[in-house]
Amino acid sequence: MAYDYQATHALDGTIGAISEHRPNHLAVHRTPALAVVLAAPGCFAEVAALLAADGSVEARFCGPGEWLVLAEAHAPETLVAELEARFGARAHVCDQSHGRVVITLSGPDAARILANGIAVDLHPEAFPVGRAANARCNHLAVNLARTGEARFDLVVARSFAQALVDDLKTMARGHHLSVDFATR
């Protein structure tokens, strides 16, 4: 018996079709290319250097010898294939594109909104642009990255995406937040 599978986003039917973007905006990305890279024992420095030298991907530190790699210019399949070819036996690469959701919170109150549920010092001196950290947003594990002065990315497991959006909406009460799928 053959089955016909159709890929859908975890948040299809729950957000979208807003009439205006407010100053604080939550953008959900539809098809991110994500992979986790784990350095082989003894190869941490070499893998870190290779990731830093590649301008086509964004490598976010997750822990010793572990990075979350995002790429706008790649399809999920090509990102993993390229990373595997680049690293060979120096690192293990695992596709996370269909298992994670990327959400961008931007606006003048973005740090204040996140401060309502994330126990990370988000002052620009303590958490500058380019910094990433694994954190809890209320009860959910997220990878948080500052991608601009007033812009943050949150990466969450697909099955918790709706709960994270609901939590962020609650955290943003009084901050005029709009929510929609990203246009980029």
What's the main sheet like? Answer: 6 strands, mixed
Which regions have little confidence, pLDDT < 50, spanning 5+ residues? none
The neighbouring-strand order within the major sheet is 7-8-9-6-1-10
Helix count equals 4
One letter per element, helices H and strands E, the order comes to: EEHEEHEEHEEEHE
Number of strands: 10
Q: Termini distance? A: 38 Å
The geometry reads as globular
Global structural class: alpha+beta
Walk me through what this model shows.
It contains 4 helices and 10 strands. The strands form 2 sheets. It has a 6-stranded mixed sheet. A 4-stranded antiparallel sheet has the order 3-4-2-5, with helices on one face. The protein is an alpha+beta fold and 184 residues long. Helix content is 21%, strand content 34%. The chain has helices at 44-53, 76-87, 110-115, 161-171, and strands at residues 24-28, 33-39, 58-63, 66-71, 91-95, 100-106, 132-137, 140-148, 151-157, 177-181.
Summarize the structure.
With about 180 residues, the protein is of the alpha+beta class. The protein is about 20% helix and about 35% strand.
Reconstruct the topology from this structure:
Elements: E1 24-28, E2 33-39, H1 44-53, E3 58-63, E4 66-71, H2 76-87, E5 91-95, E6 100-106, H3 110-115, E7 132-137, E8 140-148, E9 151-157, H4 161-171, E10 177-181
